[in-house]
Amino acid sequence: MSEKAEVSVKFWPFFSRFTTTVTAQPYSNYSEPLPLHFVHHRSNRSDAIPFLFIHGYPGSFLEVEYIINGLVNPSNASLPAFHVGAPSIPGFGFSPTPTGGVILRFLASNHPESVVCALANFWIVPPNGSDLQRYYANETTPDESYLINALEQYENFGSAYQFIQKNQPIQLAYGMADSPVGFTMWIWDLIHGLAGPDYTWTPSELITWAMMYWIQGPEIGLRFYKENYYDGVWGKGTIIGGVVVGSPYPYITQPIAISEFAADGRSRTPLSWAQRSANVVVRTEHDRGGHLAAFITPELLIDDIRSFFGIASLSNTGAFRRR
Description:
alpha/beta; three-stranded parallel β-sheet; 41% helix; globular
């Protein structure tokens, strides 16, 4: 069997896939209906909790592969069960443009009547001016110092891809569109570092993940950072010592859990910092894994999801039983 056939046999029968149309208004001036592709697996449990899995860049709906069955069909009745929806967010994979990001935080803020709680493994909290004053006076905690150093290291030495994608994605896309191999290596350079040192990508995984951005043409995924910048989501803060200071995110009142993984550059976010932008009630640290937690360390993420969503008094998931 060819490698292409193996990928098709593995993925397409496994996922229950659907398409629909949504509108971006009133939160966008884009007036055309947006085709939206999504995976939807329902549990046969009557007490199952609706669970929306939102991927980011450079991922796709494929990230849900290793956690979806464990969430929908837990091994015993004492564990919480979930109805799982995993969309290709607009501009990614099988959902056409426009593109956007950091959806969870704005979805929870704009639609509190629909979002009961959330768990995030990517929770950006820049330091404020007071944090940096304490840092330069050697008064910050080990976690605060670690995060400030990590953010400064990223801004100065690890974010070149972000700057070119934010400023001139179309110029980059011209060359990428003429070289599938070059584009695949661009994606590999990102996911290789984000996965952490203990994971080795197979050729079929690499090609399949890159294909999710090749379907609509390279420019669509590459402009992710440009859209976020011009929407005021990223890059609008003040840069002090190489670190972006100040948060552009709205405050979230619903219960939030954050899961942090050692190889993710933004791990070790102090709980007090995380609580500045949301009602963060749980912070879990892991000594392995990286940014792509659902795909690389699914067992850890599933445990975090079950622990948080399974305690109704903590996550407010008892709201589903009252409906």
